[in-house]
Amino acid sequence: MHPFNAIRPPRLAVGLGMVGMIPFVTGALGLWVTPEVWRERVMEELLGYAAVILAFMGAIHWGLAMRAEESSEKAPFQLGLSVIPPLLGWVALSLPIGLAIPVFFFAYAALYYADIWAVNHGLAPVWYPALRKPLSIVVILSLLVAWAATLITH
């Protein structure tokens, strides 16, 4: 079977995806245990990482568009889609935390559905949602935990 049609994601992709969750989970939990004087810095780092990963995820869509056949009508849409996540991350970083975190929620949720669209249109591997769904859930839950920390501790 061609790897593009495999149902399960490659083990390396799963492992690296899990490693990529460490800053989300430790940042979110860190907000609950870090001395108050450091919490703002922890939140800045967490949101900065969230923006970087959005840019990375956008770049994946750019790469998928580059792999698409030039005659594909979907490639231009995919290219356009690829620049939205980093722009959302950039905008979110300029907002107050109470607005930034919802922007990140929206961006990560929308990105997951964009990933599904790419799979359904033959642009991304069949296994991609099996990788992205649990990672997206961890990211969104981490952001919720972080948001709750800011609401409760302030």
UniProtKB/TrEMBL annotation:
InterPro entries: DUF3429. The keyword Endoplasmic reticulum does not apply. The chain crosses the membrane at residues 12-34, 46-66, 87-114, 134-152. Keywords: Membrane, Transmembrane, Transmembrane helix. This is DUF3429 domain-containing protein. It comes from Pseudomonas jilinensis. The keyword Membrane applies. Pfam families: DUF3429.
